[in-house]
Amino acid sequence: MQVVQIQYTPGSPGTLSASIDAPPPYTDAEHFVSILLLDESGVPLPIDYYRQTTVQTDGAGQITGVTLTVDEPLPPDFEAIVMTDAFPAHRQTFGSDS
Question: Sheet of 78-84: strands edge to edge?
Fold first, then answer.
């Protein structure tokens, strides 16, 4: 599986999106992909991840991407982790040092 980069679009709401290239079959019927946000101390941000996550698929149900919509303001420095089921597939830090 490959996650190239997480795209962050600040705003109200803001979004974080990632494209996913996984070998088939990696379908939404059998897997869940999400984006977890951590503050600069490594503590998960209190977001309703389940309700605010949208998984993109192709016509066969193959997972092709994931988007997290965030209504709350994010801290200036945070880390985003693409989670595939319970496995961290990609980590990316955002903020003044990135």
Answer: 33-39, 78-84, 87-94
Q: What is the dihedral of CA 13, 88, 56, 32, to 10 degrees?
A: -110
Pairing of strands 33-39, 2-9: unpaired
For residue 70 the two structure tokens come to 């965030």
Q: Report how far apart, in Å, the C-alpha atoms of 40 and of each of 5, 22, 29, 96 are.
A: 19, 29, 34, 11
Rg over alpha carbons for the chain, rounded to the nearest Å, is 13
Number of C-beta neighbours around residue 83 at 10 A: 17
Cβ–Cβ under 8 Å, residues 54 and 67? yes
User: In the predicted model, what is the mean pLDDT of residues 50-75?
Assistant: 96
Q: What is the pTM (predicted TM-score) of this model?
A: 0.88
- 11-58 pLDDT per residue, tens: 989 999 999 999 999 999 999 999 999 999 999 999 999 999 999 999
41 backbone dihedrals φ, ψ, rounded to 5°: -90, -5
